[in-house]
């Protein structure tokens, strides 16, 4: 028995569910889960089915394409482990959270490497027998540094996702284009508030009573990509910005790990600048 | 164009979605929303579709029953306002929250009456031109009192739901049987903690850091019916039990109103002692 | 026995707590609660004590001023009901929440009147026997309209606070100056995100997973005054902006009522653009 | 300059704050933070001050005892790192969360060792160069096993706290007595719900919409010690109990780490079966 995740999105029209469910029935597949959503404002249809049966992936894809339109986006995958690269700078909370899950066999991915612009987190990564690459940005222009990072990444043949686990440098459009819709970031703030540098200092100065974190896909608009997951925590007047940062770190790591799980389970559609998540 | 909510639950088997979606396609119905869930532990299938088209309810029901099994539970309704009765005792927060929504035209229901065992809330109810009935329990046995309440309720021909908006008396099996799966209660606690009397005093004595509220259908097990909705709020050592009660009231009213909305929109399946909510 | 709330804020220096507690001891006052906070960044000291004893307010004030510096802000009040005016436009959820609490005797205030730029909410207000004033803005310039509103407010001798319970017009600096630090607003958004018009539409377009509300004092920076209280609620891709608005209303009303309670209990200090809340 | 945390709790009576603040003033100490709380129900006074100055601990203790009653509990400590032992069984999420904070220098403690009744987590612990001790319970009676654990713990001279980071065995009164008020546990449930074995299965069967975790001091009543910290997360009908467990783990680890921080900063008073936390 093989298991597949079928993700379909297209312009909404009558009979779509019928056609697909007819095919799945004829192929004698078990439907393990099925989610549909119609974005009526944009007349878009989204569907995610997890099915099980005696059919090869090539064959299932062919059959699906037969009943579906040209203009349909079909994403068909087996639930196999994806390859991910983590990128970090100096802080270990998000990285550590992912490593502990990885070690426990809880993360449905292979961490093929960790890339950093500092060597600080090398010892932590190496404890888990994962290759660590320090690509320092010192004395390099942004473009020079990024070229080196891209070169470093090029050694991995199939990267499914790059996870920015507190990588504190801005990526250029070149980089984003090279890994389009494959980069997940955690923003240390409740977007769209406090975009940019030191959001905890900004939040503290504004006197907010709640701080948060946002995990999102990276696009060329700084901190403006499609949001995957958000969470918040209460703060009070007696929190310094350092305290806010410390509390914020817990929110950041849980929010990023939650987003990563959704990504690895192929639960997310991106449409325009938004996500549909089943 | 008519709109219908189709709720189906039955033993899970292959081809169900196909058969139903085939019918909906042939009847040229628009599918406005569609949710499915398979409870794999109990091998149960649940489906809720909202559809739109040129077909009469009788006819749609007939067609659906043709393609479905005998053993399928079909619940087919038009989105018309339901008739509800509210039952209260002395506290006004849940009642008031419902009345304000009602007045704003936000509540998809007709409040046909409010029944109480005290006359305290009469003036508030009457401001909103809703019939208020005081059925005092004083000097009556539990059975005698309930007989009178049932008599009072009998005057309303079609009661879809009875909402216990802080009605502080225990209902007997006779009552529960008479309005089976039609009674919604708000429990002033985070079930299954603190079942029974004065949960805020219990919570305070236990020194909890979070209190909550639970909206549920009423069954014959005291405070043990299927849970519809729950919410919580943080408390601290400097909250007296009165403070906890005051904070708790906000959670109670929002949780009950949220549950009521789900009920009125026919979004809830009850299976065993649990709910499936789309 | 008289009860007093003593609020003191000043530049931090050694011996302050000693001097004050010495006085309270000598006056044989019971200390019912006592909170202190030192903002070490700004070297500011904040203290709120609730005390009980046989002393007149004038006399207590005099004694306190004797031991305290000239540069100390002293706010001494008895826990008597404050006079508040509510200002609204068309939506009833915040207004209704306050009215229900008022009717239940839960609100420590006299609502002396409700002012609106529409007559829509008049019938609701009048149910509760509270004077309602419609000051239409139609065919008036902003300044003309505000002059009329100020004239309307002038009839109430002692207004302690003006509560903007979804008053959808921007106040001019003249108005804000006239009721400095006395105006509380509920912003239908999780500030500082989505400042300005229709934040739910903005939030929906941004695809956020959490929406919120912010209660704050009004200053001349639009939606930028000191934050009193904030809360949030989760949303999903299947929420339209209307759904977000509906969910948001529950957060708005609870957040505003919570802020109002803090205000009425004299629990808030405003320093720079932030609040210290005990 | 030395820094001290002064914790005082005693029967409430007039003049306490005055006496203490007088002493602190005379000793020319800076008060960095000061919290007081009167439990009026039990007539108990609690105070925590953090002070700074040129005085030795012995001397400060002496001076404080001079002005305070015999019946006062005085807890005076310097903010030095405490020694903690972690106890675990098979799950790594709580342990891992603590280790990552430890590695980052974020944890104000020395982890002197990790004790487990299985050897599974040994490799993880050893990555961080912390001694790991496996004391298997196999083929031993509860008492025999516990005697061996106590023997193992005896090698550490000064254990300030024992943290049960998912240690899945019940401690006997002998053990609890040996480390009275020094044992912190994380309960995989929102106490007092679902006491005992497999709470996620219990929660799933009850159909709850929220699950939680509780960190508490261990007393001889199973899962009934004073609560330090609690948190919750929403769940839905489509969460299996395994899913609930997975989500629950995030709540467990954050709740335990938060409680541990409060413990290590000497912020907690235990009175009767409750905590006062500043």
Q: Care to describe what's here?
A:
The structure is a homotetramer of 278-residue chains. Chain A has 278 residues and is an alpha/beta fold. The first copy, chain A, folds into 2 domains: 2-77, ACT domain (Alpha-Beta Plaits), CATH 3.30.70; 82-277, Rossmann fold (3-Layer(aba) Sandwich). Chain A is 32% helix and 31% strand. Chain A contains 8 helices and 13 strands. In chain A, the strands form 3 sheets. Chain A has a 7-stranded mixed beta sheet, sandwiched between helices. The first copy, chain A, has a 4-stranded antiparallel beta sheet with strand order 2-3-1-4, covered by helices on one side. In chain A, strand 5 (82-88), helix 3 (93-103) and strand 6 (109-116) form a beta-alpha-beta unit. The longest helix of chain A has 24 residues, at 241-264. The radius of gyration of chain A is 21 Å and the shape is globular. The mean pLDDT of chain A is 93. Chains in contact: A-B, A-C, A-D, B-C, B-D, C-D.
Briefly summarize what is shown:
Chain A is an alpha/beta fold. Chain A has eight helices and 13 strands.
């Amino acid at each position: 028995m093989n298991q597949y995740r079928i993700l379909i999105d297209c312009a909404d029209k009558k009979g779509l569910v019928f056609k697909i469910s007819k095919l799945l029935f004829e192929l004698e597949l078990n439907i393990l889960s099925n989610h549909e959503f119609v974005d009526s404002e944009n007349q878009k249809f989204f569907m995610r089915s997890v099915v099980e049966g005696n059919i090869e992936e090539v064959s299932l894809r062919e059959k699906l394409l037969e009943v579906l339109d040209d203009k349909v986006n079909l994403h068909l995958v087996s639930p196999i482990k994806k390859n991910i690269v983590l990128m970090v700078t100096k802080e270990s909370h998000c990285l550590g959270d992912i490593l502990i899950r990885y070690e426990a066999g809880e993360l449905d991915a292979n961490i093929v490497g960790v890339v950093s612009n500092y060597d600080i987190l090398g010892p932590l990564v190496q404890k888990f027998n994962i290759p660590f690459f320090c690509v320092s940005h010192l004395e390099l222009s942004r473009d020079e540094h990024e070229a080196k990072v891209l070169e470093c990444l090029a050694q991995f043949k199939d990267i499914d996702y790059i996870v920015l686990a507190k990588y504190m440098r801005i990526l250029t459009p070149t980089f984003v284009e090279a890994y389009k819709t494959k980069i997940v970031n955690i923003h240390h703030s409740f977007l769209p508030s406090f975009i940019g540098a030191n959001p905890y200092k900004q939040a503290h100065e504004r006197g907010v009573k709640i701080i948060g974190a946002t995990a999102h896909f990276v696009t060329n608009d700084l901190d403006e990509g499609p949001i995957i997951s958000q969470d918040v925590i209460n703060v009070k007047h007696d929190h310094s910005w350092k305290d806010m940062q410390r509390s914020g770190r817990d929110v950041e790591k849980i929010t990023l790990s939650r987003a990563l799980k959704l990504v690895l389970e192929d639960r997310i559609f991106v449409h325009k600048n938004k996500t549909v998540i089943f």
